[in-house]
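Reading a protein record of the kind used here takes only a little practice. Think of the row as the fold of the chain written in a discrete alphabet. With that in mind, consider the following protein and its fold in token form:
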Amino acid sequence: MASEQDPQQDDRQFEVPQGSFDIQRYPAPEPNLLGWDSADEYVLNWLSEQDGAADGKVCVINDRFGALAIALAGRRPQSWSDSHLAQRGLSANLERNGLDGDDVTFVPSSFVPEGPLKLVILKIPKALAELEDQLARLRPQLADDAVIVAAGMTKHVHTSTIELFEKYIGPTSTSLAKKKARLIIPVVSSETADPAVPELAEYTTAEGLTIRAHGPVFSHESLDSGTRLLLDSIPVFSGGEAASSSLSPTTRMRNPSNGKSTKS
């Protein structure tokens, strides 16, 4: 969630211990809204206070406009997200800050980041189903001594949120709230080493169409009214076609066919 602030140029710099960065929202900058929130600031300040925090592979998750990945670009992180707009926003902000697309590898949510991960920074999503899906798929990629910290606004951090970290990662503590943001800090436990990935939600429409959906999918347990209206308007083709969106030319993305990083 972006915060309102005086639109003076100095105020619009993302100032954290890792440096000063120009982070804009995507697709269009908004004069009174920032491309980061206080949870981003909180977690990067926390990280700067950790002695020699987790040398090795780094992953940021749900980084909306790339603020976290860009602040940590010197460690060549992976950025894991289900949002195409996040990928485009990251690319635009890398260029804005004079960074190369190779400094960050974007991994779509249909795949998992390359492990073993030594440092993970996760922005807490609003939907518990999405968080559970991410934690279950993330756990096998973690090093035994991985440092994991999740950041979010206090209104998105609940007892049920903490319970998911304890279920899939290990014993979990929380920080004090600062500027309406809070950190969740789990410790990797061997007891969670082989978690079961949540089953896909499944339901059948009145027309007999069976739908299976992952946790991050909007209204994944039932057909929402907007989608029903769309289905009534979409013609049925006999051949079956798939549309693909274009990807930014400046950000690396995990290649679905072989798991390797390529430029798209």
